[in-house]
Amino acid sequence: MGSITWLVALFTAAASALPAVAQEKPPAPLQQPWEGVPARYRNLPLGKWDPPATLAQWTSQREKVKKIVIGSLGDLPPRPSPRDVRVVATDQKDGYRIEKFVFDNGVDSTVPGYIAIPDQRQGKLPAILTMHGHGSTKDNMFGYKPTSQDVAGILAKQGFVVLGIDNYFNGERKGAGPAGEFERQERGSDQEMSLFKLNLWLGRTLWGMMLRDEQIALDYLASRPEVDPKRIGAQGMSMGSTRAWWLAAIDDRIQAVVGVACFTRYEDLIAIRELRAHGIYYFVPGLLKHFDTEGVMALLAPRPFLVLTGDRDAGSPPEGMKKLEGILTRHYRLHGKPEAFQSVIYPETGHVYNDDMKLRMVAWFRRFL
């Protein structure tokens, strides 16, 4: 892999070749927690996670916490075999090739994705499962429709195999919901809602099914002959960030995580009246009866976890981020790995994936995979 100097040059060249990309969401105005929240919503019956004082205490409770997290996702049907994935096209790039593949998720969808494989290889390579944001696609991540989430080429040129799929109601999967083409042509935003409703009727959650698709993608990534299955990381922005740390919580094969934006504690989201800042896709039943997102994120330790967030991101209340920083810093110290958790909060910054975040993301994976 090249030096950091070479990496900076690569970012500079890539940035000059891209069209100007606006922030995905404008910076949110600041407000005091609970200001304007009706009184009856200020004392909700929320479960509180009692952080363990010792590693032995955490070891005794970890499986219970993980069971609660997985249980909140609803019924998850068995996953199909990674042997059933089909490569349908190949595109040679400068220093790597991209294969387009498809798989049937065994329930309701044909799922398209890309995998980028470096040309220069000695032995098995580390790999990254990359995840797009709400309203974004695999094409944005792999440079076919470049946005700020275009990371696959940068990672591939640093020696990583990179894989990403279109998740539900995005990219090539638009118009593939319960109402078919009607949702693509007339009411495209309804596909997310109809999938959310239908899955509840079936005892599932849309969020659980989205994570299940990522697990199928992970099964395929781990099966590739170019990949070292013990060195797989996950990264994403916005909805992709949340998928990355939730996926690592339920699947220990993810060995390092970088989440850009959406470092969110749910109670604090209620406190600043911004439940609207997140799509309905990731709401699951019962979780807050037990604990907030610190319970989910605690399952990542001691695996490396980097979060990069703007302080004006409406979906990531600063008060909640500070609480999470304190809880997770102590939790990683219990494991003797304080260096494996890092949170960077960018001042006067909204919902973005900027070049500094990309540099930190690549450096994190170079260090820990």
CATH fold annotation: Rossmann fold
**Order of the strands making up the biggest sheet:** 1-2-3-5-4-6-7-8-9
Gyration radius (Cα, Å) is: 20 Å
- Portion of residues in helices? 25-40%
Percentage of β-strand residues: 15-25%
Would you kindly provide a written description of the structure presented here, covering whatever features stand out?
The protein has 369 residues and is α/β, with parallel strands linked by helices. The chain has one domain (32-168, 204-368): 3-Layer(aba) Sandwich (Rossmann fold), CATH 3.40.50.1820. Helix content is 36%, strand content 18%. The protein has helices at 4-17, 55-71, 138-141, 152-157, 181-185, 190-201, 206-223, 239-250, 266-271, 293-298, 318-334, 355-368; strands spanning 86-92, 96-104, 110-118, 125-131, 161-165, 227-237, 254-260, 305-310, 341-346. Strands 1-2-3-5-4-6-7-8-9 form a nine-stranded mixed sheet, sandwiched between helices. The longest helix is centred in the middle third of the chain and has 18 residues, at 206-223. The protein is globular, with a radius of gyration of 20 Å. Residues 15-23 have low confidence and may be disordered.
List the helices and strands and how they pair.
Blueprint: H1 4-17, H2 55-71, E1 86-92, E2 96-104, E3 110-118, E4 125-131, H3 138-141, H4 152-157, E5 161-165, H5 181-185, H6 190-201, H7 206-223, E6 227-237, H8 239-250, E7 254-260, H9 266-271, H10 293-298, E8 305-310, H11 318-334, E9 341-346, H12 355-368
Parallel strand pairs: 4-5, 4-6, 6-7, 7-8, 8-9
Antiparallel strand pairs: 1-2, 2-3, 3-5
